[in-house]
Design a protein that fits this description.
The complex is a heterotrimer. Chain A is of the alpha/beta class. Chain A contains five helices and five strands, in the order E-H-E-H-E-H-E-H-E-H. Chain A has a five-stranded parallel beta sheet, with helices on both faces. In chain A, strand 1, helix 1 and strand 2 form a beta-alpha-beta unit. In chain A, helix 1 packs across helix 5 and helix 2 packs across helix 3. Chain B has 22 helices and twelve strands. In chain B, strands 3-12-11-10-9 form a five-stranded parallel beta sheet. A five-stranded parallel beta sheet of chain B has the order 4-5-6-7-8, covered by helices on one side. In chain B, helix 3 links the parallel strand 4 and strand 5. In chain B, helix 6 crosses helix 21, helix 10 runs parallel beside helix 12 and helix 14 packs across helix 15. The chains are: A alpha/beta, B alpha/beta, C alpha/beta. Chains in contact: A-B, A-C, B-C. Chains A and B meet through helix 1 and helix 3 of A and helix 4, helix 7 and helix 18 of B.
């Protein structure tokens, strides 16, 4: 691909722990991507609107509060409702293994839990991005 | 600290030792690394000797426990007199369930309560607000009104326990609820003991549960200082927190620097609001992180105590010794816990506990092994509490005061951290103080740089995290994880609906209208918030009224 | 429906997609713009520039909100520098515009400068056209006022707003040095800070020196965070617009901008054309080497390079 991959890094929900999101944002930039950072307390509606207007290839969300089962699938579904199905959606945060199958099934394609290296995230995105 | 000729002798013998023993040896057998550093990246020498503390004045810099500059501790007898308060932060789901957990913890020998609120509560939204979706009861207990608070403390005598509440932006509302519950129990507010976190600056910096802009938030905080100095004199009105700054990725010295810089801002705000420094300063308390690097952490607490004492005495002309004492709560570092091989976390927490105790903490929360996965189960909480008890009763470290004092390494590290922190505070002063430094994003940027560096060190293998980038195994996650039932949100919403129907809505509307009007003046808002709370106005309604008048803070991010 | 019909129908997904295609230099996108170019020229373009941390995004948000109250459709392009080392960028201006994020009548797009060292790219002016076709009444183009992008903004905007904050110290010298001339309106943001009046005075004094200019820019104190005096600022912008309309400067400026754009486009294609031929047989490297070793002078070398086009 001879253009930068565009990634929306978003913090859905109310938790204010953005250390991970910011570290990821920098790592993606250093891997040559264009990263749009939304800041805290974004509703699924806001995330979807930003993803559309910014025409991103990837939506990367981080939640540490435990609200992932509600909010991640909602973003996927809202995008679907708008007819947007060609984006890669990934999530991260404090997410128990038990919840991962459900999230994957709902259309979040990867869940990165604590201890994941930023290199793995970069690699996953580069190899799984859907649009050329 | 030593005579000059003694030092000269030590210097020459030290050089001789290096020449004779080290130089050749490391040619043949090089050391494991080129440079050694602390967890925060301070370079660590091979050996520390009296030479490293040769300029230190014992009386002035180290001194005695319970005496200025309090390097060795704030109480004269420390743990020989009384152990620290073992205080496990807990709370989840509904008030009913959290109440059960508190009673359990008190039965297990815990000596104080520590209330965790869910995020909607912390940001001043009711459980039925659209932004609360999915968050109700998740990271703490959901409190919408005085009704919930009554249930939360049901059967717990508030004149007997001390209660710490992790609440910041809406601290005045939750404190008002606590006072109102006590009143119903027949306990007057002057008997209440406890702490509200009430530290908004670190919310802007690191934790993210802010509501109002800085100026208005500072007003609410000074309102609380003033109100409590008259009506709730035993209450710690603020817990100035470095914990979350460290969790966001700062170094140990940055943790001290940014926390004390915030402290300076609160003291200045209170003085500007017309309070006498010795009137409120004794009720200020602090909250620090306990990270993995044992000696660095101990040095950090000692440096923080010394530096704060100097600041209060020299900068603010405090006269009362109590104003100069930095009392602090500690929590072990959540960010050091790994999702991989979670039982290893028990060991990490034990080391961190040791650091906090050797550093002279007044109270401690130990994290549970499963917190990188979810909220802790009862079993895990038990081990965490037992860890404190083992350190307290079996390790022997409590038998003498500040046992690491005089260690060449620890003293020189204490000095180094103090100096680095002073340097940062000077920079922040030059930017116009902590509030300004936050608005320009300076503090956040410094923390992010440290966090990024730390992460890159882990990824390059320069820094080893057992089970994560070394000594890895294939494993399956244990199934016992505490999950908050999604029903909680529905139940809480129903309770709220019922409350809105049954309460005296005329009284609520009046109280809210008065609060709104008073918010536009300079009056202390505490009495009006208390009135609204007693009328069963909800947290969301009270904060909503203040949002109308104060506006909301917008995040300052520089990446 | 194809992308151009969807764009004309006000579909945000199509609008966003087309901007990306233009950023990526896709031929198809240029063809679409060729077809729809006649629909451009309706939007009023406001350049917003100033040093980092001056509060440009928040101010833009507040101005946009005000214009939304009158039912105007708004486009916002937030341009941030791309790292020359990695080609990546962190675009964080949206953080300060969350109030607009769900507004039907607002389209916000963050763009990296990409290959264009510090300057605004061809993609920026293409994106302006897309938003114009999309039906925006006002388009804000927000750039960090460092280096080339500040100068470039004049080539694209009808009114340039320079955002300053009090107590900038040496910054004011820098503004004096080069960029004072480009601003049509000055906003002193964070007006509640001490020193706002002093900064205003300093700007006014500088403007006094610039008497040969026929329009004297307004200097407006505002507070974006407190949402204070945004009306006054918009009035100053409109005053500049009306003045230009009345005097014919508007037309002059747009003609000039069209000329600039045409020449820039031609320049870019010419260079590409030359480069394509010059890399054959290592011709360019050979020339460079000859210039470096003083076998040839750069002027003769240039003539040889241009001769490639004639063959």
């Amino acid at each position: 691909m001879n253009r930068p991959i565009r990634v929306l890094v978003a913090k859905p929900g109310l938790d204010g722990h953005d250390r991970g999101a910011k570290v990821i944002a920098r790592a993606l930039r250093d891997a040559g991507m264009e990263v749009i950072y939304t800041g805290l307390r974004q509703t699924p509606e806001q995330i979807v609107e930003a993803a559309i207007q910014e025409d991103v290839d990837v939506v990367a969300m981080s939640i540490l509060s435990g609200a992932h089962n509600t909010l991640f699938p909602k973003v996927v579904n809202l995008l679907k409702e708008r007819g947007v199905t060609d984006r890669l959606i990934v999530g991260g945060g404090v997410i128990p293994d038990d919840d991962i199958p459900f999230l994957i099934q709902s259309g979040v394609e990867a869940i990165f839990t604590p201890g994941t290296s930023t290199k793995d995230v970069v690699e996953f995105i580069t190899t799984h991005v859907k649009r050329q | 600290m030593y005579e000059k000729d003694k030092l000269d002798k030590i210097l020459s013998s030290y050089q001789k030792w290096e020449e004779n023993k080290i130089v050749k040896l490391i040619e043949k057998f090089p050391e494991r690394k080129k440079t050694f550093t602390t967890g925060s990246g301070i370079e660590v020498k091979r050996l520390y000797t009296p030479l490293d503390i040769k300029d230190m004045d014992y009386e002035e810099e180290i001194g005695y426990p319970g005496q200025y500059p309090f390097t060795r501790g704030v109480q004269p007898t420390m743990y020989r007199g009384r152990l620290w308060t073992m205080r496990q932060y807990a709370g989840f789901a509904t008030a009913e369930e959290s109440n059960k957990r508190y009673k359990y913890l008190l039965e297990q020998g815990q000596t104080g309560l520590s209330v965790a609120f869910d995020l909607p509560t912390q940001i001043g939204y009711d459980s039925d607000h659209p932004l609360s979706e999915g968050e109700v009861g998740k990271v703490g207990v959901a409190i919408d009104s005085l009704k919930d608070m009554e249930i939360l403390f049901d059967g717990i005598p508030l004149d007997k326990v001390s209660t710490s509440m992790t609440i910041n932006a809406p601290a005045s509302v939750l404190l008002a609820m606590y006072i109102a519950v006590a009143e119903k129990q027949g306990v007057s507010s002057d008997k209440l003991r406890g702490t509200i976190q009430n530290d908004i600056l670190k919310e802007y910096i690191a934790r993210g549960t802010y509501i109002f802009p800085p100026e208005e938030s500072m007003r609410l905080i000074t309102n609380i200082f003033e109100y409590c100095s008259k009506h709730v004199p035993q209450w710690n009105t603020i817990s100035i927190s470095g914990y979350h700054i460290r969790e966001a990725g700062s170094t140990a010295a940055q943790e001290v620097a940014f926390t004390l810089a915030d402290g300076i801002a609160y003291v200045e705000a209170a003085i500007n609001a017309g309070l006498e420094v010795d009137e409120f300063a004794p009720r200020l308390s602090f909250f620090f992180n306990a990270h993995n690097d044992l000696f660095e952490e101990v040095a950090k607490y000692r440096a923080a105590r010394r530096l704060w004492a100097k600041i209060m005495k020299e900068r603010f002309n405090a006269k009362s010794e109590k104003s100069m004492q930095l009392k602090f709560h500690t929590q072990t570092a959540g960010s050091t816990l790994t999702a991989q091989q979670p039982d290893n976390n028990i060991v990490r927490v034990a080391i961190q506990t040791l650091a906090a105790v050797l550093g002279g903490t007044q109270s401690l929360h130990t994290n549970s092994r499963d917190e990188a996965l979810a909220l802790p189960t009862e079993d895990s909480v038990m081990i965490a509490l037992r860890t404190q008890q083992i350190v307290a009763y079996e390790s022997g470290v409590t038998e003498t005061i500040d046992p690491l004092a005089g260690s060449y390494y620890v003293e020189s590290l204490t000095d180094k951290i103090e100096k680095e922190a002073m340097e940062y505070i000077k920079n922040i002063d030059n930017l116009g103080g902590a509030t300004k430094a936050i608005e320009t994003g300076y503090i956040q940027k410094e923390i992010q740089n440290s966090a990024y560096k730390y992460q890159m060190q882990i990824e390059s293998g320069e820094r080893i995290v057992v089970g994560v980038n070394k000594f890895k195994v294939e494993e399956e996650q244990k199934k016992e994880i505490l999950k908050v039932d999604p029903q909680v949100e529905i139940v809480q919403k129903k309770k709220l609906q019922k409350l809105r129907q049954e309460r005296d809505n005329v009284r609520v509307n009046e109280a809210i209208a008065t609060l709104t009007e008073k918010a536009k003046t300079n009056e202390n808002l505490m009495p009006y918030i208390l009135d609204a709370v007693k009328a069963y106005a909800t947290l969301g309604e009270i904060c909503g009224a203040l949002r109308e008048v104060f506006g909301e803070y917008q995040q300052s991010v520089i990446l | 429906m194809n992308i151009e019909d969807r764009l004309l129908a006000g579909d945000k997904i199509a609008c966003a997609r087309l901007i990306s295609m233009l950023e990526n230099n896709e031929k198809e996108a240029e063809e679409i713009l060729k077809k729809l170019y006649h629909k451009t020229g309706k939007a009023y373009i406001i350049g917003v520039t100033g040093s980092p941390g001056a509060g440009k995004s928040t101010l833009t948000e507040k101005m946009a909100k005000k214009l939304r109250e009158e039912g105007k459709k708004i486009g916002i392009l937030a341009i941030d520098p791309t790292s020359p080392f990695t080609g990546g960028a962190i675009l964080g201006d949206r953080i300060r515009m969350t109030d607009l994020s769900l507004d039907e009548g607002v389209f916000i797009r963050s763009m990296g400068t990409r290959g264009n060292l510090g300057g605004l790219s061809k993609a920026t002016s293409s994106a302006i056209k897309v938003l114009d076709i999309f039906g925006c009444d006002y388009i804000f183009v927000e750039t960090v006022g460092v280096g080339q992008s500040e100068i470039d903004i004049v080539k694209m905007a009808d009114t340039v707003l320079m955002v300053l904050v009090p107590n900038m110290g040496d910054d004011i010298q820098a503004i004096k040095a080069g960029t004072m001339e480009i601003a049509d309106v000055f906003a002193i943001n964070k007006s509640d800070l001490d020193g706002a009046d002093k900064t205003k005075l300093e700007i006014e004094m500088n403007l006094d020196l610039n008497e040969n200019k026929d329009f004297r820019p307004k200097v407006v104190k505002v507070s974006a965070i407190k949402n204070k005096d945004i009306d006054t600022l918009l009035e100053a912008i409109f005053e500049h617009r009306d003045y230009q309309m009345k005097t014919g400067n508007y037309e002059k400026r747009r003609i000039n901008n069209a000329k600039q754009e045409l020449l820039d486009l031609a320049k870019e294609d010419l260079i590409n054309l030359i480069m394509k031929k010059a890399v054959e047989n290592d011709f360019l490297n050979t020339l460079v080497n000859e210039v470096y070793t003083r076998k040839k002078d750069p002027y003769t070398a240039k003539e040889e390079l241009l001769n490639l086009l004639l063959n």
